[in-house]
Amino acid sequence: MKIGGPNFKNLAQLKRLARHDRELALKKACQEFEAIFVYQILKGLKSTVPEGGLFPKSFQREIFEDFFYQEVGREVAARGTGLSKLLYQKLASKYGGQK
């Protein structure tokens, strides 16, 4: 079962924002991409850790861990790894936004 993933509510908000302020919408989309990218890295790293430990594996634990890694991904991206800035610069220069 797939847990988490892209937030389509945020996607709809980005589309509305893009009608009024394309530059800000592009910045937010780049930040969201960075958050999802970091989340995927964390999920991959988690899969390298052997199962076991204090708490047994359960569906509830899986949901909690997935949400936890999503939020950690957002926090890491909010502080900036540089990916969203680089992506924004490349896309803005290609599509006529601010360089």
Structure in a nutshell:
Helix content is 73%, strand content 0%. By secondary structure, the protein is mainly alpha-helical. Helix 2 runs antiparallel to helix 4.
Structural class: mainly alpha
- Provide the residue-averaged pLDDT: 81
How many beta-strand elements?
Answer: 0
Count of alpha and pi helical runs? 4
The helix fraction, in percent, is over 70%
- Helix/strand order: HHHH
- Counting copies of identical and different chains, the oligomeric state is single chain
User: Strand content of the residues, in percent?
Assistant: under 5%
**Which of globular, elongated, flat, extended, rod-shaped describes the shape?**
elongated
Uncertain regions spanning at least 5 consecutive residues: none
Rg result:
16 Å
Largest sheet: none
| Separation of the first and last Cα atoms | 41 Å
The tally of domains stands at 1
Pfam families: Rod-binding
InterPro entries: Flagellar_prot_FlgJ_N
Domain Flagellar protein FlgJ N-terminal: 47-89
Protein name: Flagellar protein FlgJ N-terminal domain-containing protein
Description:
Residues 47-89 form the Flagellar protein FlgJ N-terminal domain. By secondary structure, the chain is mainly alpha-helical. It has one domain. 73% of the residues lie in helices and 0% in strands. The chain has 4 helices and no strands. Helix 1 runs antiparallel to helix 2, helix 2 (22-46) packs across helix 3 (59-79) and helix 2 packs antiparallel against helix 4 (83-95). 13% of the residues are buried. The mean pLDDT is 81.
